[in-house]
Amino acid sequence: MYARSTSIRGNLSNLDAGIAYVRDEVMPAVPKKDGCVGLSLLADRGSGRCIVATSFVDEQAMRATAHEDRTVQHRLMHTLGGEHADVQEWEIAVLHRERPAGDGAGAQVTWARIAPNHLDDLLDAYRHNLLPKLQELPGFCSVSMLVDRRLGRTVSVTSFEDRNWVARDRKEARSLREQFAQAMGAKIVDVAEMDLVLAHLHVPEAV
Predict the structure, then answer these.
(1) CB burial class (10 A; 0-12, 13-18, 19+) of residue 190?
(2) pLDDT digits (tens, 9 = 90+) for 107-126
(3) Which pLDDT tens digit goes with each residue over 65-88?
(4) Which residues share a beta bridge with 106?
(5) pLDDT value, residue 21
(6) Which phi-psi region, left, alpha or beta, contains residue 150 (left: φ > 0; alpha: ψ -120 to 50)?
(7) Contact (Cβ atoms closer than 8 angstroms) between residue 127 and residue 207
(8) Confidence of residue 137 (pLDDT cuts 50, 70, 90)
(9) Which of 97, 125, 107 has the alpha carbon at shortest distance from 181?
(10) Three-state secondary structure readout of the chain
(11) Is 100 exposed, middle or buried (0-12, 13-18, 19+ CB in 10 A)?
(12) Sequence-separated (6 or more) residues with CB below 8 Å from residue 45
């Protein structure tokens, strides 16, 4: 499975309009796209950052929709009042759900980099070492790890029942991430706490 993410930092006053556009116009069109199986939306009401991710059955289906998605990206950027859309394509390497993370859940999002030739080792350690520890955090719902094998980029999303659990688990989750990254020779480049506004990625279990 693959995913395309579009990250835009817009004006806080426009965030609700951007969410409404994705929910009311973009999400209903997902089933009409060949090979597109779902969509999720993360939003940070503190910074105005908004991340839309669409999931696909394979890389070919993802690439085939690139031109069509550019129209959506431009309109969302205009709606949010943003100046730049950061579009990334990913392989969904790990996904585990302890329980469904419904709309309105909270999430910790971590971006990292590692030497591409060490990526498989990182994924193996993530599945067997870090994931079991994340599952023990109170309020845990699910975790996913998306990777760009060519550039050695990763992004992981750990979802919790709501933002209150995200705040309560902040210190312990940060310690787990930092210890894991140091042990694997990876560099954490960004961390965000966000609302999982829409949770409809529809990706099967992958561990």
Answers:
(1) exposed
(2) 999 999 999 999 999 999 99
(3) 888 888 999 999 999 999 899 999
(4) 160, 195
(5) 96
(6) alpha
(7) yes
(8) very high
(9) 125
(10) CEEEEEEEECCHHHHHHHHHHHHHHHHHHHHHCCCEEEEEEEECCCCCEEEEEEEECCHHHHHHCHHHHHHHHHHHHHHHCCCCEEEEEEEEEEEEECCCCCCCEEEEEEEEECCHHHHHHHHHHHHHHHHHHHHCCCCEEEEEEEEECCCCEEEEEEEECCHHHHHHCHHHHHHHHHHHHHHHCCEEEEEEEEEEEEEECCCCCEC
(11) exposed
(12) 12, 15, 195
Report the candidate in 65, 62, 168, 158 with the shortest Cα–Cα distance to residue 110.
158
pLDDT (tens digit, 9 = 90+) per residue, 59-71?
Answer: 999 999 888 888 9
| Location of structure tokens 């990777």 | 147
Which two tokens mark 140?
């845990």
Which among 149, 154, 152, 155 is positioned nearest to 59, based on CA atoms? 149
In the structure encoding, which two tokens stand for residue 192, read together?
């965000």
Q: What is the pTM of this model?
A: 0.92
* Position 50 pLDDT exceeds 90: yes
CA distance linking residue 39 with residue 25, whole number of Å: 12
* Contact assessment for residue 130 and residue 176, using Cβ atoms and an 8 Å cutoff: yes
